[in-house]
Design a protein that fits this description.
The chain folds into two domains: 34 residues; 174 residues, Porin, CATH 2.40.160. It is built from one helix and eleven strands; from the N terminus they run αβββββββββββ. The longest helix is centred in the N-terminal third of the chain and has 33 residues.
């Protein structure tokens, strides 16, 4: 009788243990499927005004880390000059949650390149005066620190703000040549979005579309910040 009782107790224990393990395994799989591992989208803000962006949430380290990149090119026209500005950055975000959303901090590398065309420049050589155009290039690289929040869902928003400290010149010095006349020019830097005298401002928001390479079962969740 005692042996049968011990056998019954052992059977109940193993059944309960197996059920508990299956629940934990199922929850782990469900949590993994809920993570948006790859997303592409459109970023609206500064310095790029409109940019393509992509993010990959790494399945390692409990989905806390994500690699990101973005790229844009914009053309601006002013009365005396034109610019074509290319901006890109890449880096890594750290999410405080384990599902790749909520609050995050980021560290990255930002690269801005502006091709600037100055018009109606005056070239003087003795009694000879002529006007012409000239182009010069502004290249800036900086380390970015970002802070933001990302919502959950198939289509979601990511709002972020960041800053990259870097000394930016107020004026541009360049040599130009027109009709055989070479001259050194000193022109003011045009106003570029997000660019200040001490660095580069990043922000504010992305509209992102999540894309899965595999067909997972539907999973709905509300935004949990932590």
């Amino acid at each position: 009788m005692k042996k049968k009782f011990l056998t019954l107790i052992a059977s109940v224990f193993f059944v309960f243990f197996g059920f508990s393990q299956n629940q934990q395994r199922g929850k782990k799989i469900e949590d993994t499927l809920a993570v948006k591992h790859f997303a592409i989208g459109l970023k609206l803000g500064i310095p790029n005004l409109a940019a393509g962006t992509a993010e990959v949430v790494l399945p390692l380290f409990k989905n806390h880390f994500a690699l990101y990149t973005e790229y844009s090119q914009i053309a601006l026209k002013f009365s005396a000059l034109e610019t074509t500005t290319t901006y890109s950055d890449y880096g890594m975000n750290y999410y405080f949650k384990t599902r790749g959303n909520g609050f995050f901090v980021g560290l990255g590398k930002g690269m801005l390149s502006a091709d600037i065309l100055f018009k109606n420049l005056l070239f003087i050589n003795g009694d000879i005066n002529t006007t012409g155009t000239a182009t010069t290039l502004l290249d800036l690289n900086t380390t970015l620190i970002k802070l933001g929040i990302k919502t959950a869902g198939t289509i979601y928003f990511r709002c972020e703000i960041g800053y990259g400290r870097r000394k930016v010149p107020d004026r541009l010095l360049f040599n130009a040549r027109s009709n055989g006349i070479t001259k050194l020019f000193d022109e003011a830097l045009p106003p570029l979005p997000g660019l200040g005298s001490n660095g580069l401002l990043i922000g504010p928001s992305d509209l992102v579309f999540h894309y899965d390479f595999k067909k997972y079962k539907p999973y709905r969740e509300s935004l949990i910040l932590f």
